[in-house]
Every structure is written in structure tokens, then in C-alpha cells.
Amino acid sequence: MDQIIVQGGKSLSGEITVSGAKNAALPAMASVLLGDGDYELSNIPRVVDIHTMAELLRRLGVQAEWSAEQANRLALTVRGVQSCEAPYELVKTMRASILVLGPLLARWGRANVSLPGGCAIGARPVDLHLMGLQKMGAEIGIAHGYIEAKATRLKGATILFDQPTVTGTENLMMAATLAQGTTVLDNAACEPEVADLAACLIRRGARISGAGTRRVVIEGIERLTDGLHQHEVIPDRIEAGTYLVAGAITRGRLTVGNCRPSHMQAVIQKLQAAGAEMREEADRVVIDGPSRPTAVDAETAPYPGFPTDMQAQFMALMAVAKGQSVISELVFEQRLTHVAELQRMGARIQVQGVHAKIQGVERLSGAPVMASDLRASAGLVLAALVAEGESRIQRIYHLDRGYERMVEKLRGVGAVIERVSGDRAGAGRAAS
Ligand code: EPZ
């Protein structure tokens, strides 16, 4: 398996360009199932999760091809579907496959989607997705690990989520576009990716208001408009936040370009509180990292709160901060697996339930570490950038799921970082 090798201690400087948001691209891709047509989705990051969703859509009968002219453009053609089944072999590698459930049910009246199962960060149930669809009149059964759903025509309903769910809001918003009557989603997720999906659907004739707020209202219509539909997904606010932390942790001066500062306020404010100088412009943020960050507490929360997807990255920064901080993971029940790996690098962290108490140290030491989930891997890369000596990060297939060309982007601003393939990776210290 490939590894990433980092020689720590270099301050980063220059500009990093952010790719499109994986978590906006995935629902936009699933939404093509809502009606026949030709679709051009641009600013799509070439990451593993996107390839998995493209493969899933192909299994359902959608043509999905990367544009020859534009590297990050995906062309999709829908002329009916050949199947309504999302198989376990694909769903187990990417939970977001659940996003085909709503569109298949709304447009084609049936769907067999494998239950995603748990993952490294928690049980990740989909009960809220199913509750909403049942309220809209779907018949939902669970058999042999699959969700078997049927509906002649979904009906509008008022659905109250007992907690905000991003893909749950997206799934039900897509299902409601073709339902009979009005659907209200209360306590909906407000993430920018939800609003981006709504913009994509509205462009195709959907009647949606309130997307991006806690209350979304969808007037069902018979069918979406035909023709060529084009949509450019928003920049990835989590990738952008990750590179801002890279600037902060290496005491560098980084410009993070092609991003939306308005989507990143919680992270920007946290970094300012930690002592970083931040300058926001229309589509970029400039960060001047502090000589040594100040310890700042953080609690993850649904948007617009501090994102759970930035928790591991911020913990890496607090590991070298001056003072003690507490980081609380309040969204997922087990998203602290990166703590053990950071401790291997010399971080002083105590976990009590969902709280991590961090006593900042002057410096971390490079070490071989293991990635466990997409964002934990990013946190380990950030820690390696500032650790003394060499770090080898294993299982970086996690990173490949959501970060486009991370090694090249970091090397482009001065990081001493390389990716080594499986056989060379095995050499380890013995050969160095
Ligand atoms: C989305 O996952 C993102 N994925 C995640 O990003 C992100 O961490 C998460 O939202 C929170 O922001 C995509 O958008 C593809 P949730 P999602 O439903 O929708 C509980 C990444 O790194 N819940 O908002 O699966 C759930 O267990 C990924 O790109 C239920 O109990 O998350 C969790 O505690 C990782 N029942 C909380 O809600 C449900 O039916 C929030 O989960 C659904 C969710």
C-alpha cells in the first residue's frame, strides 16, 4: 500500500488552489436519476469517492464520462435506468451511495439500496432518511442487509429531523421534488452543500425554498425540465480549511485560492483565536501562521458551527499550541481515532468520552503513523508537516477518497513530501 513520507519543519508559502467539494458533487451526481437528460457537472474533484459514485450510476444505467476537454467536468446521460439496485460491494466503500435512494424512489418508484453499515467514525445509521421517506408514503423493508423501498408516487409531508443530517436532508429534498404536494423539512441541515444541491435542482425546474436554512419547503412537480443541464459545484470548504491549518501549523504564509470564505467562518474565527492573521478576499483567504499557536477550545457542531470534518486537522494544530485546550466531538460518536496516532508523534492528549484534552508541546517528532478515516489522515499529514524529522503515513487510500492531488499541492508551497508506492514503502527506516 502507498505511503506518504514527510520531512517536517518547513514553513509553507505560496498559493494553493482548492478543488470542487466532494460533498456537493456526490448529491449532484445522484440527482441526475431524477429525470432523463444530459448533464454536465463541473469543478468535480477527481477523488475516489467520485469514481465510486460514477461507477454506481453506471451500474444503474447512467452513462458517466469525464470530459476530454475539461479535466474536472463530468458528462452524464440518463435515458431511463437499467437497475434500481445499489450493491453492497459499492455501498460498503462509500456511505454516500445512500443518496441514490431518494431519486430512484421518486422517479422510478423502487430502490434496493444496501444498508451502508458502520465505518471508522461511527454507526452512521440512516433511520432519519427512512423515516422521512415513510412519511412520504414509501413502503420500506429491510432484508438481507438491503433497504427495499417502493412507492407508486411519493406524497408531500412535514418531516422533522430529530437532529440535522446532511445526506438525510439531501435525500429527502431530492425525493420531494417529484412528490405530489408540498414537503417541509424541519431541523434540516444548513451545510452549503445542501444549498448547492438545491441550486442544481432549481435550475432544472424544481420548486425549493429555504435550502441552507433549518426549514426547507419543496413544492412537488410532475417532472424536471428536459435538455442539457449544467452545474458547477462549490469549492471544498473542508479542503480549504485543511490548507489554512497547514499554513498555521507551519508558521507559514499561505493563500488558499478558489474558495468561499463565507462558507468557512467557524474555521477562520478559530484560527484567528489561535493567533493566526487572516485576510479574506472574494474567493481566497490569506493566512499568516503564528510563531506558536495559542490553545483554543473547539466543539464540533452542524453548520454553521465548527465542522466535524475539521476536528482532526484542528487537533493537530492544538497539539503544538501554547497551553491546554479541549476539543469535543459532538457530531459522531467515535471520531477520535487519530488521537492514538498523534500521541505516537509526541502529542499529549487525554480522551474522556467525546472530549480530548490537549496539552500543547513545543514540538512533535516524526513517526510512522496509520490513517483511519478521510479527515484523520489529513490531520496526520498536518502534524507531520511540523514534526521533527521523518513521518510515514500509511493507509493513505483514506486520503485519496476526498483530497485531490494533496501531495502535489503541498509540495507546490514548499512541503518536503512524497508519495511512495507499496513496494518502496515497505523499505521503512531500515533502508534510510
Ligand atoms: C455528511 O455525512 C458528510 N458526507 C460527512 O463528511 C460529514 O462528516 C457529515 O455530513 C457531518 O457534517 C457527505 O456529505 C457525503 P449526517 P452524513 O447524516 O450525511 C446521525 C467526509 O469526510 N444520523 O449529517 O452521513 C449520524 O450518526 C464525510 O467527507 C442519524 O442518527 O452525516 C451523525 O451522528 C465524513 N440518523 C449525525 O446524525 C440518520 O439517519 C450527523 O450525520 C442520519 C444521521
User: Helical content, roughly?
Assistant: 25-40%
Largest sheet: 4 strands, mixed
| Structural class assignment | alpha/beta
Task: List the ions, cofactors and other small molecules found in this model.
Answer: ligand EPZ
Beta strand count = 24
Average pLDDT for all residues: 95
Basic shape: globular
Q: What Rg, in angstroms, do the CA atoms define? A: 22 Å
Distance between the termini: 19 Å
Count of DSSP helices? 15
Low-confidence stretches are: none
The largest beta-sheet arranges its strands as 22-23-1-24
Question: How would you describe the overall organization of this protein?
Answer:
This protein is of the alpha/beta class and 432 residues long. The protein is built from 15 helices and 24 strands. The chain has helices at 22-30, 48-60, 88-91, 101-108, 127-135, 166-177, 192-202, 237-249, 265-273, 311-319, 338-344, 374-386, 397-400, 406-411, 422-425, and strands at residues 3-7, 13-17, 37-42, 63-66, 74-78, 85-86, 110-114, 139-143, 146-150, 158-160, 182-186, 207-209, 215-219, 228-232, 253-257, 277-281, 284-288, 298-299, 324-328, 348-352, 355-359, 368-370, 390-394, 416-420. The protein has a four-stranded mixed sheet. A four-stranded mixed sheet has the order 2-15-17-16, with helices on one face. Strands 4-5-3-14 form a four-stranded mixed sheet, covered by helices on one side. A hairpin with a 7-residue loop joins β4 and β5 (74-78). α1 runs parallel beside α7 and α5 (127-135) packs parallel to α6 (166-177). The longest helix is centred in the first third of the chain and has 13 residues, at 48-60. It is globular and about 65 Å long. Ligand EPZ binds at residues 23, 26, 95-96, 122, 124-129, 163, 165-168, 189, 308-309, 331-332, 374-375, 402. Residues 23, 26, 95-96, 122, 124-129, 163, 165-168, 189, 308-309, 331-332, 374-375, 402 line the site of ligand EPZ.
